[in-house]
Amino acid sequence: MGFVSFVGRVLFASVFLRSAYQEFSEFGTDGGPAAKALKPKFNILTKNINSYLGVALPPIDMKPVIMAAIALKGLGGLLFILDSNVGNFLLILYLRFFTPIVYDFYNYDTGSTEYVQLFIMFNQVRQ
Questions:
Q1: What is the pTM of this model?
Q2: DSSP string over 5-49
Q3: Composition of the chain by helix, strand, coil, percent to 5
Q4: Alpha carbons 35 and 65: distance in angstroms, whole number
């Protein structure tokens, strides 16, 4: 049973490790395509926080955010394969932080197709 568990951990972690490797190889000087995709979503998030809480957040540079995502996925995936609770925690931390930002269904009207698609993807990731 230990071998089957190990194979399952390797297969699960391979999704995160491959994603971390791809983001690392495309990082470049500007953070790569991941930074370009996340920048508008972070701008909307900071605008929402500013309007709801009345707290002015400083501008967020995407390069450190993408580096943190790469580190969380890479290190978390490797430690998950080794059956470490720290790896579990790192992957959960990554998912809890990035999922609501990437799948920002709450910024669309409930009848729009974007809302439905993002809401479905958000709920699939959470499970």
A1: 0.82
A2: HHHHHHHHHHHHHHHHHHHHHT-TTTTHHHHHHHHHHHHHHHHHH
A3: 80, 0, 20
A4: 8
Which residue reads 């983001």 in tokens? 23
CB atoms within 10 A of CB 2: 7
In tens, the pLDDT along 85-98 reads 999 999 999 998 88
Q: Which H or E run contains 119?
A: helix 113-126
pLDDT digits (tens, 9 = 90+) for 65-117: 999 999 999 999 999 999 899 999 999 999 988 888 887 777 777 778 888 88
Q: What distances in angstroms separate CA 67 from CA 15, 31, 34, 73, 105, one per listed residue?
A: 17, 8, 10, 10, 25
